[in-house]
Amino acid sequence: MERKIKSFGVIAEATKPFIYKLEVGKEFGGEVVADIIEHDGVFKLFNRNDELITEINLPVVRVDYEYPLAAVN
User: Fold this and answer.
1) Cβ atoms within 10 A of the Cβ of 33, count?
2) Pairwise CA distance, residues 63 & 47, whole Å
3) What are the residue ranges in the chain where pLDDT is below 50?
4) Three-state SS across 56-71?
């Protein structure tokens, strides 16, 4: 069964560390995230046109997956 990344949390740092959650359907950098793909520990955010919004290479503390329902015959 193939799974899709629904959201993930990373440790970000400003004046003190905090957890930032990125998820499908939410806005990032002025664009709505339509897909998240992880490759070699780097998370890539894509918009609805399959264009890369950004790559995230921060320590990940949580990943939530979505499992498509299997068709029942």
Assistant:
1) 20
2) 19
3) none
4) ECCCEEEEEEECCCCC
